[in-house]
C-alpha cells in the first residue's frame, strides 16, 4: 500500500513508533505528493475509553483505534477496533499494546493482510514477557494462549519461546546481584562483509593497532578495578567484535592474557571467543585459546554455498570452515558454536538444506540461525536500492527457516535463546539451538537482561542492573575507533559511575 500522507492524533514519540512499526510490518509506504500512490491519506486516531461492561474486571485501560483510508477520489473507508488492557499490565504498557493490537487486527481482519508469525511482538527479547508471566505463576499452556490472544503471536512461535523460557530458568538462577559477565569488543575484521552493519573496522596498520592495544589494556584495568571495588564475581567472559581473531597472533595472545589476568578464576562458567572466519585463524591463535582455557569458540560460516560466500565478501571456502572446525576440536576446545544466516542473496531453501546437511555433519555443540537483517548501514542495503542484488522473498525465507528447524529437531538441537531485530527477513528471528547440556550461559544472560554485563573495548556496551530499583542503565563506548581511543578515560569513568550507583542503591 502506497499513501501520499499519513496523520496520527498523537505527538507522543512512543505512539508514533509503535504505529509505524505496524505500517512497516505491512509494507505501507508514505510516498509524498510527487510519488505514485494508492491512497491520498492514511490516518490513525486513538481514543481512551472508560473501562466498563464486558471488559475484564481489574483492567485500567481501554483503547479504541480507528484507521481511515482516503482515496484519491475523495472516498473514505473507516475501520475501528477496541481492546482492553490486562490487570497485571502497567498502564503505559497496556496503552501501547492495545493500540498496536487494534491496528494490527484492522490490517489482518479488515484489509486482508496475511498475519505475521510474531504478531505484534516486535521487541528484541520476546521471552522477557514470558519470564514475567512465569513469575506470576502462569503455566505453559496459559502463556501460549495469552501470547496468541494478547499479542496475535502464531501458535508456532508461542510454542518456541514458552518452553524456551522455562528451559532458561535454571541458568538464570545461577546469577545474583553480585554476579556479572564481561564483554570485550575487538572492533576489527579482515574484510567487511556485504551485509554487515556492525561498527567494525578493517584491521589497521601497526601504529594504530599498537595505540588500540594500549587503550584496550587501560580499559581492561579500569573494569578490573571496578569489579574488585564492589566485590563482583565474574560468571562469563565473552570476547566478540568484529572478529577478535583478526588481530595478529602476538596481539591476540597478549589480549587474552590481559583478559585472563583481570577476570579469570577457577569458578568461571564460560569463556567464549568469536573466531568467525577461517581466514582469521592460525595455529598460534588456536594455541593461545587453548593455553588460556577458552571453553567455547564461535565458527561462523554463515553459509556453506561457495557462490554466496563470494557474493557477500567472505574470503574462504566451505572446506576451510570444516578444516577450522576440526583444528579447534583437535586442540581440545570443549564447545564450538556455528552461526548461519537465512535469507542471503540468491539463496534458496535447497541451498539452506545443503548448508544444514554439511554443518550438522560436523556435529557442533550449538547452532544459531540468523534471519538476515538488512540495515541502513550495510553495503548490501545500498546495492539492493540500486537493484543489483536480489534477496529471497519473505515466503522463501520462512521456508528456509522451516528447513533449518527441521534439521535442529532431527539432530537433537533444542532452542535455548532468541532475539529479534528490525528489518529481519521473513519477519523471523535469530534463534540459538544446542544439544542438551551445551547451552551458552552468556547468550542466555545477555538476552534476558537478568545480569550486569560490563563492556570493554571498541563499540562495547555496559548494561548495569540496579536490582533494588528494578531497572537497567547502559553506557556506551564509541563506535568509531578514533573517538574510542581519544576518550577512553570518559568511558571508564561513566562505567564506574554506573556500577557505583547500582551497587550502592
UniProtKB/TrEMBL annotation:
SMART domains: Elp3 (SM00729). This is Oxygen-independent coproporphyrinogen-3 oxidase. It comes from Selenomonas ruminantium. Pfam families: Radical_SAM. Residues 174-414 form the Radical SAM core domain. InterPro entries: Coproporphyrinogen-III_oxidase, Elp3/MiaA/NifB-like_rSAM, HemZ, rSAM, rSAM_horseshoe, rSAM_sf. GO terms for cellular component: cytoplasm. GO terms for molecular function: 4 iron, 4 sulfur cluster binding; catalytic activity. GO terms for biological process: porphyrin-containing compound biosynthetic process.
Amino acid at each position: 500500500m502506497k499513501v501520499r500522507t499519513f496523520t496520527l492524533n498523537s505527538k507522543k514519540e512512543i505512539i508514533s513508533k509503535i504505529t509505524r512499526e505496524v505500517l512497516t510490518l505491512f509494507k505501507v509506504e508514505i510516498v509524498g505528493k510527487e510519488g505514485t500512490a494508492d491512497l491520498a491519506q492514511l490516518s490513525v486516531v486513538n481514543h481512551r475509553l472508560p473501562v466498563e461492561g464486558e471488559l475484564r474486571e481489574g483492567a485500567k485501560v481501554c483503547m479504541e483505534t480507528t484507521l481511515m483510508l482516503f482515496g484519491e477520489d475523495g472516498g473514505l473507508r473507516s475501520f475501528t477496533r477496541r481492546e482492553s488492557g490486562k490487570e497485571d499490565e502497567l498502564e503505559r504498557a497496556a496503552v501501547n499494546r492495545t493500540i498496536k493490537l487494534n491496528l494490527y487486527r484492522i490490517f489482518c481482519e479488515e484489509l486482508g493482510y496475511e498475519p505475521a508469525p510474531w504478531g505484534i511482538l516486535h521487541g528484541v527479547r520476546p521471552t522477557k514477557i514470558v519470564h514475567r508471566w512465569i513469575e506470576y505463576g502462569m503455566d505453559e499452556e496459559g502463556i501460549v494462549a495469552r501470547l496468541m490472544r494478547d499479542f496475535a503471536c502464531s501458535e508456532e512461535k508461542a510454542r518456541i519461546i514458552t518452553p524456551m523460557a522455562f528451559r532458561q530458568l535454571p541458568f538464570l538462577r545461577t546469577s545474583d546481584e553480585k554476579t556479572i559477565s564481561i564483554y570485550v569488543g575487538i572492533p576489527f575484521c579482515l574484510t567487511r562483509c556485504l551485509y554487515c552493519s556492525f561498527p567494525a573496522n578493517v584491521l589497521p596498520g601497526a601504529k594504530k593497532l599498537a595505540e588500540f592495544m594500549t587503550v584496550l589494556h587501560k580499559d581492561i584495568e579500569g573494569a578490573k578495578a571496578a569489579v574488585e571495588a564492589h566485590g563482583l564475581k565474574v560468571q562469563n567472559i565473552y570476547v566478540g567484535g568484529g572478529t577478535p581473531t583478526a588481530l595478529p597472533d602476538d596481539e591476540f595472545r597478549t589480549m587474552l592474557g590481559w583478559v585472563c589476568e583481570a577476570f579469570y578464576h577457577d569458578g568461571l562458567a564460560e569463556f567464549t571467543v568469536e573466531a568467525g572466519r577461517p581466514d582469521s585463524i592460525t595455529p598460534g591463535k588456536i594455541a593461545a585459546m587453548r593455553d588460556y582455557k577458552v571453553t567455547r569458540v564461535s565458527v561462523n560460516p554463515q553459509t556453506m554455498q561457495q557462490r554466496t560466500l563470494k557474493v557477500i565478501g567472505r574470503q574462504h571456502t566451505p572446506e576451510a570452515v570444516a578444516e577450522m572446525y576440526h583444528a579447534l576440536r583437535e586442540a581440545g576446545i570443549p564447545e564450538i558454536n556455528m552461526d548461519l544466516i537465512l535469507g542471503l542473496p540468491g539463496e534458496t531453501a535447497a541451498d539452506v538444506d545443503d548448508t544444514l546437511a554439511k554443518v550438522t555433519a560436523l556435529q557442533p555443540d550449538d547452532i544459531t540461525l540468523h534471519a538476515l537483517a538488512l540495515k541502513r548501514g550495510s553495503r548490501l542495503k545500498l546495492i539492493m536500492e540500486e537493484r543489483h542484488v536480489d534477496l529471497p522473498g519473505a515466503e522463501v525465507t520462512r521456508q528456509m527457516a522451516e528447513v533449518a528447524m527441521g534439521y535442529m529437531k532431527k539432530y537433537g538441537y533444542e532452542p535455548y535463546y532468541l532475539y529479534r531485530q528490525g528489518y529481519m527477513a521473513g519477519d523471523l528471528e535469530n534463534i540459538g539451538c544446542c544439544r542438551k547440556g551445551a547451552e551458552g550461559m552468556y547468550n542466555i544472560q545477555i538476552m534476558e537482561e537478568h545480569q550486569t554485563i560490563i563492556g570493554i573495548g571498541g563499540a562495547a556496551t555496559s548494561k548495569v542492573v540496579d536490582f533494588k530499583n528494578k531497572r537497567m542503565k547502559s553506557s556506551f563506548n564509541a563506535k568509531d575507533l578514533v573517538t574510542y581511543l581519544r576518550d577512553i578515560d570518559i568511558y571508564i569513568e561513566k562505567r564506574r559511575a554506573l556500577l557505583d550507583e547500582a551497587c550502592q542503591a
